[in-house]
TrEMBL record:
Belongs to the major facilitator superfamily. Its main location: membrane. The chain crosses the membrane at residues 63-85, 105-125, 132-153, 159-179, 186-209, 221-242. Keywords: Membrane, Signal, Transmembrane, Transmembrane helix, Transport. This is Major facilitator superfamily (MFS) profile domain-containing protein.
C-alpha cells in the first residue's frame, strides 16, 4: 500500500508539474484590483471578498449541492459494497472464503474496467446524462437480481461484477456534468467542494451498514444498497431537470 501511494504521488507530481493555475488565478482575481475602494473598513472588505469568492458562489449553485449529495451516496455504495460483500456471501450465502474473495476481486475489476471502457462509450454517444441514467438503472437491475437469487453462485459472481462495471463511470461522469453546468471561474471550487464533501460518503455509509449489521445482521446489506442506488437515480433525474432549466 505504501509503495502504491508513493508511486501515485510520483505520477501525479509529474502529470501536474506544469499546472501552476496562473491563468485561473488571473481571471478569478483580476476584479480585486479594481474592486477595493478607499474608505471601506477591513471587516466589510473581508466580508465582500468572502461573498464574492469562488467557493461561496459555487455553493450558491444548486447543481453543486446535487452532485455533492450524489457523490456522497455513490461513494457509500462503492465502498460499502466492497467492504461488506465478503461477509455477506460467507454468512448469508454459505460461500467459502476463497469464493467470496474472488467475488470481491471481480467487483473491483469490473469497477475499474467500467470506469475505463464506459467512459469512452459515454463520450462517443454524446448523450452523457441519458447514458448515466441507463448505467444507474443497470446497477439497480443487477443488484436486484443479486438480492433475489440466492442459490446460484454464478449469478452472484455475474451480477456483482456487472454492478461494479456499471458503477465505474458514475463518479467521473457526474464531475464532468457539473463542470459543464458551472461557469468556468467556479470549476475548481465547485468540483473541489463536491468531491471533498461527497467522498465522505465512503466513510459514513460503511460505518452505518456495519452498525445496522451489528444490530440486525449482515442481511440488511442488499436492502440498504438498493435504497442508495434508487436514491442516486432520483438525484440524477433531479440534476437533469435542473440542468435543463438552466440551459
Amino acid at each position: 500500500m505504501a509503495a502504491g501511494a508513493f508511486l501515485e504521488l510520483l505520477i501525479l507530481t509529474a502529470a501536474f508539474w506544469s499546472a501552476r493555475g496562473t491563468v485561473v488565478n488571473t481571471q478569478t482575481h483580476a476584479h480585486a484590483e479594481h474592486g477595493d475602494g478607499d474608505g471601506i473598513e477591513p471587516r466589510q472588505l473581508w466580508r465582500e471578498r468572502l461573498q464574492n469568492s469562488a467557493l461561496i458562489q459555487s455553493l450558491h449553485n444548486s447543481a453543486t449541492w446535487i452532485i455533492c449529495v450524489f457523490i456522497f451516496i455513490y461513494a457509500g455504495v462503492e465502498i460499502a459494497m466492497a467492504g461488506w460483500i465478503f461477509s455477506f456471501l460467507v454468512d448469508q450465502r454459505d460461500t467459502s472464503s476463497f469464493r467470496a474473495g474472488v467475488v470481491n476481486f471481480l467487483y473491483w475489476a469490473g469497477l475499474t474496467l467500467g470506469r475505463v471502457i464506459l467512459g469512452f462509450v459515454t463520450n462517443c454517444l454524446h448523450a452523457e446524462k441519458s447514458t448515466v441514467m441507463a448505467y444507474l438503472l443497470a446497477c439497480v437491475a443487477c443488484h436486484s437480481v443479486f438480492t433475489l437469487v440466492h442459490g446460484s453462485f454464478a449469478t452472484s459472481v455475474t451480477t456483482v461484477t456487472l454492478l461494479g462495471f456499471f458503477l465505474g463511470p458514475l463518479f467521473p461522469e457526474s464531475v464532468i456534468a457539473l463542470v459543464q453546468l458551472l461557469p468556468k471561474e467556479l470549476h475548481i471550487a465547485g468540483v473541489g467542494m463536491a468531491v471533498t464533501l461527497g467522498s465522505a460518503g465512503g466513510c459514513v455509509f460503511p460505518f452505518i451498514i456495519g452498525t445496522l449489521a451489528n444490530v440486525a445482521g449482515i442481511k440488511v446489506l442488499p436492502l440498504v444498497i438498493l435504497v442508495m442506488l434508487v436514491s442516486c437515480s432520483l438525484l440524477w433525474l433531479f440534476f437533469v431537470f435542473v440542468s435543463k432549466r438552466r440551459l
